[in-house]
Amino acid sequence: MKKSPARGRDIVVTAGIGALTVVLLTMSGSVAIANAVAAVAALCALSAIYYLLAGSPREIAAAPEKTESLPSPEADATAAAMVELLSDPVLLIGQGGRIERANRAARDFLGLSRDGGNIASLIRQPKVLEAITAALDGDTPPPVEYSANAPYESHVRAFVNPLPQKLGGQRLAMLLLHDETATKRAERMRADFLANASHELRTPLASLSGFIETLKGHARHDEGARDRFLSIMESQTDRMRRLINDLLSLSRIEMNEHVAPSEEVDLGKIAKDILDTLKPIAADRGVSFRLDAPETPVTVTGDRDQLMAVIQNLADNAIKYSPGGATVTVEIAVGDSPYDAIRPGGRLIEESGRMTIVSPSSEGAVGVIRVRDQGPGIERAHLPRLAQRFYRVEEGKAEDRKGTGLGLAIVKHVATRHRGGFSVESAPGRGAVFTVCAPLAGSAAPAAAGKQTAEPQTAD
Q1: What is the DSSP string of 24-63?
Q2: Which residues are registered as beta bridge partners of 363?
Q3: Which of 1, 6, 167, 459 is the most exposed place for a label (fewest CB within 10 A)?
Q4: Cα separation of 378 and 391, whole Å?
Q5: Which run of H or E residues covers position 264?
Q6: Cα-based distances in Å from 397 to 151, 297, 318, 392, 394
Q7: In this predicted model, what pLDDT tens digit does every residue of 108-118 receive, in sequence order?
Q8: Cβ neighbours, 10 Å, residue 232
Q9: How far is CA 148 from each of CA 108, 181, 444, rounded to the nearest angstrom?
Q10: pLDDT at 290
Q11: What pLDDT, on a 0 to 100 scale, did the predictor assign at position 453?
Q12: Per-residue model confidence (pLDDT) at position 399
């Protein structure tokens, strides 16, 4: 740095005044000559150091103030990578609702193929759009909750905040979506479980209580009555156990219904495993199985345990409702379209009624599970209620058909979670055919307009 002449002159004058003061003190006898020489030398040294290191007041005032450095490109890239890895959907919204940027979770959640779309075409929720407009005007709106029922039920809380930075002179807003579907489903699951369990367990518990009182009273020494009552109590206890297991299974499926499975499962293999398990039960009733499956694997994207529950429930129902000597056919196949799989062009049963219980919410090739029995068939009037909880057709005439009335409800919710379809076709005296399909592995794609029907539709 170049030293100013004025500053050097000021330092020399100041050092001279100090040296003259030391000389005068020495002449008056106040300071010894040796001390005076040391003082003058020190004063000169300090003046030189000050001249080399210190700046003038004008130079200090003119020196540029230290400012905070702007984020480096590396810091920007790190922040963008952090946002991209967040599990919650995050979107950067510009003027007019244009999506300037979206992280991976947002692209998956909203089905975005790229940035640049309009948020109003993806989230058709007036309260959310109003909050975004308020944030773009500089306000901070409160969180907004909204629900959707298509293509599946979901509950979302939206957080919208304005950003201090601007893009091209225009304000930006950040939209964060937090999926609360699992929490809402868990709350409803507990309420439904308590309601259903208390309702369905009331009758068997009352029976058990009555039999226990009888056995403790006048039937205490009646061996015949005791054996008969104990047998009934065992049957009622077994029914309560199966009821609780089915309710818990159904609740678990419903809680995760909004999350599509990602495993790969061979339908042919699990069908063979289930039929091997059920053969002893079928043999006791004089019913046989026939498995029609291709030699090559039929691999779908699904949850193995839940698809096993589908085949087990459908095959178990077929055993219960088929007469002795009948054959239950389980077919595993590949379909080009989920709609053709659940609504085939020709009737599987002559003069039958057909009901689509769950419409597919995916497109592409599917794996098909089709179970056909030779039972009494189902009247057309019963088809709309088949998948309702605890609904049983002609229950009073089927005392030997032990069941909880939850099997087809489980099948329905498994089909919904797998983005597949579920249908039934039946006619009195001609048996019934139940069909379930799930996306073939590697070929599933969201349907443009497919969704679960709020009310099942019957095909003519």
Answers
A1: HHHHTTSS-HHHHHHHHHHHHHHHHHHHHH---HHHHHHS
A2: 445
A3: 1
A4: 13
A5: strand 264-266
A6: 38, 40, 16, 11, 6
A7: 888 777 666 88
A8: 14
A9: 16, 10, 22
A10: 92
A11: 36
A12: 45
